[in-house]
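Hello, quick one for you while I still have it in my head. No rush at all, and the record is pasted right below.
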Amino acid sequence: MNNVKKTIGWADYTWNPIVGCKNNCFYCYAKKIHGRFSDRRFSDIHLYSYRLEEPYRKKKGAKIFVCSMSDFFGDGVSIQERYPVYRVIKDNPQHTFQLLTKKPGNITGEDFHYLEMFDNIWLGSTLATKQDYLNNYFVNKPSISVKSFISFEPLMFNPNMSKIYADWFIIGAMTGLGSAKYKPEKEWIENIVYWAKVGNRPVFMKDSIKPYWDGELLKEFPK
């Protein structure tokens, strides 16, 4: 596991028992990193069984971002590959496991059995573009039965927050090559923060938002 308190910020560690993704997002940082260290195609999903032991070695409770180098519910990730991850989550109640996906429609009934059973899971979904918004499980669903969060990273549109249901919001801007074309607007950020505060929900702003936000960045976590 990698310590990411200073880079990601909203998690303490990343844990990647599954690597690879078929989403093919044009802004994907994971694909670039993977290309530097592996000869395997990033679209080839692979479970590294030896990494399943890593959370057991951390006795102190931590926030663990699961599969930062994949999409836990992405196309091509089978329920059979998710089973051993759920087993680790069950065995380590001291940790909070953060599952982030762009494909919430792939979450099966079997998955929800585990998601609802374990109190130490937070289910998140990325809403970076309008297309993400239109196809998302968290939109127009007032009763999500698990603890949930939305990641607006990179923020590339102004969402209709009155129809988004989640317990925590993360906001970030695109970084790296090409990011100058996709700068978030201040009013988009203000919109998210306003609706979050109306619902008494915390907001975490990545450091990448600083150029587009006046004042101190919000670094709030769920209780």
User: Anything to note?
Assistant: Residues 79-91 form the longest helix (13 residues).
